[in-house]
Write a structure and sequence with these properties.
66% of the residues lie in helices and 0% in strands. The chain is mostly helical and 187 residues long. Helix 2 packs across helix 4. The chain is globular and about 60 Å long.
């Protein structure tokens, strides 16, 4: 049995509360800032979807639309971002003391970006990628669910999003091939 604390609680819960309220180090705050993408991950609803809408879509449009990154450069960026996200997602989960925390949203970006590799920019493709990738990521279609549960730390956190991105990439490439006009491809 736990000993009561002066305020009427028990010692185990008091210790857990004090650990949760312990101040974070500067390094932990930086990791949390990056992993939550400037605290976007702390929105109270659909933090992953909000992240893709607020950061992923605009960043894709800037990189490919404005800067004109061709698919090899874009793919290299996605690979580098994925590796960075694996590392920072693992660290962020350590800081939060959670596995694949909803506040840890950096993993959402590589999944969305993978979905758009090699595709032209049309509003139809960007919007379709958003909704399809989010639905597949949320549903955790095999092997994403297995990957999330079995790969260690940041690898499981990020690679399930990569699976969603790959499924979306295949669907979108097929849609562009089969229905180019519907996907905004003319000529």
């Amino acid at each position: 049995m736990c000993e009561p604390t002066p305020n009427g609680g028990d010692a185990v819960n008091a210790n857990a509360s004090s650990r949760m309220l312990a101040p974070r180090t500067t390094a932990q705050n930086i990791v949390l800032f990056i992993g939550s993408l400037a605290y976007i991950g702390f929105v109270p609803f659909a933090s992953g979807t909000v992240t893709v809408a607020v950061v992923g879509v605009p960043l894709h449009l800037v990189l490919v639309g404005h800067f004109g990154w061709v698919w090899p450069l874009y793919t290299a960026f996605v690979v580098a971002l994925t590796l960075f996200a694996v590392w920072i997602a693992g660290k962020t989960d350590q800081v939060l003391n959670e596995k694949d925390s909803k506040r840890n949203v950096i993993d959402e970006l590589p999944g969305y970006f993978v979905a758009l590799i090699g595709l032209p920019i049309t509003w139809q493709i960007v919007v379709a990628a958003f909704f399809i990738e989010r639905a597949i990521d949320i549903a955790k279609i095999w092997p994403a669910n297995w990957i999330e549960d079995h790969l260690p730390r940041g690898w499981g956190v990020v690679m399930d999003d990569i699976v969603a991105g790959i499924y979306t990439l295949i669907i979108l490439h097929l849609a562009v091939w089969a229905f180019p006009t519907w996907m905004g491809i003319t000529g």
